[in-house]
Each structure stands twice: as structure tokens, then as C-alpha cells.
Specification:
The chain is α+β, with helices and mostly antiparallel strands. Among the domains are: 1-128, no CATH class; 159-253, no CATH class.
Amino acid sequence: MRTALAIIERDLKERRFIFIAALILGFVPFISLAIVPSLRANPRDFVAIFTAGQLFFMPLAVALGLGSSMIGSDLTAGRLSFYFSKPISPRSLWYGKLAAALVTIYVAMVLAAAPGTIFTWNYRYGQWMDRRTVFLASVIVAPIVLLLVHVLSTMLRSRSAWIALDAIGVATTAAFVYWILRPVYDAEAMWLFIALLTFMSGALLVTLIVSGAWHLARGRIDRRANHNELSKLLWASIASILVIAAAYAAVVEHAPLRHTRVTSLYAAPAGAWVAATGSVPYGFDYRATQLVNLETGKIARMSNALQYGALAFSRDGRHVAWTQSFHEGVKEIVTRSLDPIGTMTRTGIETSENLELVMSDNGARLAYIDRGILNVADAGTGRSLASVRVNVPSRWFSWTYFVNPDVVRFIVAKEMPEPRNVARLNTLDIFELDVPSRHWTHTGSFGVMARYTWASATPDGTRIFINSMKPADQADAFFIVDARTGARLLTLPPAPFNAFVPFNDSVVSFARSSDGLQLRQQALNGQEVRTINLGEGGAAHVIAARGTRLLVWCERDRQKGAFEGLLVDMATGSIVRRMPGIRLAPPHHMWEDDPRVFVPSGPLVAGVDKADHIIRINLEDGTVRPLPQ
């Protein structure tokens, strides 16, 4: 300990000139203000910017200089023999010089930035300037730079051919770090990304600190021996760090479905496939997204499309498309066959993050709107088949679907939604793009006086339900128009806004009454067919329909997490089975790109139990079972 303190004292005395130079540098902005009149217009701005630069660049400059000389210069000049002729251990020598270097760096930083910081103590330049952030970055980065420069200096001063292997090691390490972090970055799990980066950086910092004492103890005054011992410890430690980080990332990214706490479900319109996403143990904000077959339990991994991307199933449930990140800030549409299960196909279609995406009913084609252009492409090859520029005032008030594989229908609100709670004219235009001829046609339009309107098409896409928010005339609250021309076909009694589902030539909706939630079935002529009391609750959704049965999810008390699934027989008006505690995924709702309202027909429907694991509900007999393993 005494020898280390003696080394620290000796080194600090030798570096007095650094402290004097740093203090003089601290008064440079004031000297500049005195010499250059134009800087006096905004003196605090200038001093604040200059001081921030001093806080960051001064410690880096000192770290670069000391890192290359604190051991390297003595090793090259043969002065280490002087230290080792004394009763000084290599450990004391290394940690003494390292501590002296760190003290020099931080004291020089404080001396250089102190005058300007005192002058602008209560002043902040703009919204981006925060000296505390700059100071923290300098405190963290400076020792890393110091140690890295020391390692590089030791290797270069050895003049050994082994430095070529070190260069290969650096390139290999960079490749492995990229390989570990890129999938996490693509999944937009920033906290997991930061955790992995922090672990690898912290472990590397500890390795660099220990390696100095290691190579001095074994290499002594021999430059090449120091280099060899440093490389052995350094690369062995880095390999261990990368193995641990890669294993941790792999465990998180490939967590079994039984370990995933499912938070979201997205069911295909037909078939047994469902997309599920949720958190995994010790995964921070990573959300594993998987395609799950409810019949067989087969699982296929996909990107985090349910959280941060676009996802679309074909209407037959045999194909799926989603967006996935392969380059920073750019997403690419990928597709996959589900029946039979196939591999992921990259289409080469690069898009922005704000994308509207739908598939044709048979999954052969894609239609997507990106940057104001409606594109139709082959789902297998990504080859563009047709495109047209469209006006989309609001991404949430436009809808797209395939009338057939050769015709795409586009419905768009001409005006932006009214922010005030008042009625105004809302015009919806209907267009069709004929893919073979690439002909764009305006086929119809209609207008409603309301705050805004919402369009939901029937399952066959021939008619559109229009639901208006705060209409000037109650006759415009809920009605049906022709999907091609916009001609009004039928006016319906008002229904809760966007809380209805077409069912067997009728409309099913929910309402609250003094008795609690009610399920109401109305014929398209407005005549009420049936009303079923569902009990107390805040909201309800139709999840699936098969024959005369509906699967309904009731939110009894969202804040307390009280949910219940109900299997309702519409022929008898009775509740066949109650499933307390399960969560179900509402089907197509108001934010979908495809306006055709659908509910899966099962017979198997996915749900989530109290442990947040996927279960499957049979609509025919009402049984609830776990997924097959």
C-alpha cells in the first residue's frame, strides 16, 4: 500500500504542468470574449458550449496521453528495471500508476471546466445542453479510453508479429458483439440491449484493469513477454464474456412458450394459427413473438411484429406476413406459409415503420401503403405488380382490402378527424385498383355530418357498416352502404361506437343497463331478435362464432384484473359455460387496416389463463385445455 501511494505521489508531482495547463484552458472562453467582440452578444451561450466541450474532450485528451505513456514509455525505455530493483511489487506498480492517471484525468477535467461552470451555474443552453450528462459520460468513458490506449500501446511497442492475431481478435470480437446485439435491437428491446451492452462493457473494464497487473507480474521488463501475457489473459477473458452474453441472449430469445407470460394474442381469420407475444423471465423489455398452432402445439418464431410492426394473416389462415428489421430504421416485409408450415421468406420490400399491410384472401399477394403510395406485390417474390399514389390525411382513417386477387379496394376519409366535440362534414371516398390493367378508379363516396366516422366491412366485403361519432342527425349514427358505390342501403338503430359484429344476417352489439352488460342481437332491418344479460362489467367483446354459439369476453373489473369468458348459445339465449379468470383476444377492431370485421370460427380458440399461459377453448363442447406439448 505504501509503495502504491509513493508511486501516486511521484507521478502527480511529475504532472503538475497538466494541472496548470488545464486551469489556463479554463479561462480561454473569457479571454475569447475579451478579444472577439461578436461573442459578447451571447456570452453565456458561448461559455456554456465551450465548457461542455472541456468537460468531455479534456479528460479524453489526457487519457489518450497517459494511456500511451504510463507503462509503455517506461517499458520501452527500460526504466521498469528501476522499479523492480526496489521492493515494489508489479501489482503496486500497476495500481499506483493507474490511480495516479485517473486522479490526473479527473482533476484536469475539473480545473478546465470550473471557471466556465461557475460563470454559467444556473444557465442551460437550449434544451439539449445538460452538463451533468456530459460529466457522467466523461467519467465513464475516460477510464475505458485510458485502459484501451494502454493495451494498444503495449502491443504496438512490443514490435511483435503476434499483433496480427490481436487484429483478428478485435475483428472477431466486433462480429460476435454485433451477432449478439442485433437480434435484440431488431426486437426493439432497448432495456435488454442496454443490459447486455453494460455487462459486456463492465466485464471488459474489469478485465483491462486486472490485465495490467497480470502482464507486469509475468512479463517484467521484457516487451514481448508483456505483450504475450496481456494477449493471453485479454482474449481468454473476452471469449468468456462473449460466451456468457450469447448464452443469456439465446435463453431470452428462444425461451419456451411455457415460460412466456403471454400479453397479446392475434388469431388468424381461419385455421388453428395464432400469433402470441409476451415477456420472458429475466428478459427485461424483450417480448417474444411466436406463431402457435392450437391443434398440434407447433411453434414458429417471428419478430416482434405484434408490438412494433405490421402483421397480417390471409383470410384462409394459411399464410402470414409481417415487418421485420434487418437494417437500422428500415423494416422489410417477410412472409411465411403456415399450411404446410414453411420457412420465412424475405420479399426484399423495404418500408418505413408507419405501414398499412393486408394480404389477399389466398395469401398470394400483398397490398401495403407506405409513404403515401399504395403498392401491390407478389407475396413470394416481392415483385411489384401495381402502385398508385394515394392521399391519406390520417393513417387511422383509411382501410384497404382485396375484393379479389386482382382488385384492391381503398376507403379513405378525406378530412382529418375533428379534434373538437362538434359535428362537421366527413367525406369518405372509395377507390379501386385493378392490378392487371393498373387502372385506378374512383368508384364512389358519401358524406356524414359528425365528429368523425368509422368504416367496417362485412366479411364478404360487399357492404360497409358506417358508425358515426357525435352525428348531427341520429339517422346517420349507424347505417350500411354499398362497398363499391357508397350508396346508402339501410339505416340501423344506433349501436355503441365500433362495438358490433355481423352474425348470421344480424348485428350483435353490447350495451350497459341497470342490470349490467347486455348482449343484443338485431336483424338488419332494425328489429331486435334477442337480448341476453351478461352480468356486471365494464365492457365485452365477441371473440369467436361457430354455428349458433358465440364466445364472449367480459371485462368485469379491468383494474382488479377480473375477466371472464362466456360461451353463449344464441339459439336458446343461454350461457352454456362460464370461464372465470381467462383473458381472450378481441378480433379485428377499430385500428385494423383490413375493415372486414371477422371473428374466428374455431373450433379451437386461444385464450390466456391466470398464469398468463396459452389455453385453447373448444367452441363445440366448451372444454378448456392447455396446449399439446
